[in-house]
Design brief:
5 strands; five-stranded parallel β-sheet; 56% helix; alpha/beta
């Protein structure tokens, strides 16, 4: 685009990002060429630059369970209000899937935070190494309790949400998670 317009890459980038440093006429030219070339911004590059992907990870044990389905609806609604997308995984009450999805999301650097609910086996057996690894990496996590007693410190540190209404629980989780992400961003910039 820069070559076509005979502009610097920096000027084109600033025009695409609506910088006040660039004149309206230049912005219009850049946007016209971008449209004619069917230009789409590289989401991954933007995430690296901004240190945010605007994607939240969600791992739930069973979407056939009305509570978790309602929670997912609340998560979806609240995320959307805040310009976030969600990446959802269902562990199907399978401990191995829970570990695999937790590892995938925590190691991929594609999510800004995680909303998570363990299967009963994780809770009763206290096999929480995968949860501990998330918190050690500094990934913001909010945990949906769903009336399960969980004695692990890792879960307590991850800000648990527990309400009888799944929809409200989902909304609560997103609000808590976005606060944690914001606090993390403030700590990184300080």
């Amino acid at each position: 685009m820069a070559t076509i317009l005979e502009l610097s890459i920096s000027t084109v980038s600033k025009a695409l990002n609506n910088s006040p440093e660039i004149s309206i006429a230049t912005k219009n030219k850049v946007h016209q060429v971008a449209k004619s070339l069917n230009y789409k911004p590289n989401v991954i590059a933007a995430a690296l630059r901004n240190r945010r992907s605007l994607i939240l990870g969600v791992i739930l044990p069973d979407l056939k369970d009305a509570f978790f389905l309602d929670s997912l609806i609340g998560i979806t609604e609240e995320s959307s209000k805040n310009d976030y997308k969600i990446m959802v995984y269902q562990s199907c009450n399978d401990y191995k899937k829970e570990i695999a999805y937790t590892k995938l999301l925590s190691e991929s650097n594609i999510i800004d935070g995680l909303i998570f609910s363990s299967i009963k086996e994780t809770v009763t057996s206290k096999k929480v190494a995968h949860i501990k690894s998330i918190t050690e990496k500094g990934l913001p996590v909010v945990y949906i309790k769903n009336n399960i007693k969980f004695s692990s410190d890792e879960v307590q540190q991850s800000s648990a949400c527990s309400q009888k209404d799944g929809f409200k629980t989902g909304q609560c989780c997103v609000k808590k998670l976005l606060r944690k992400i914001e606090n993390e961003q403030l700590n990184l910039s300080a």
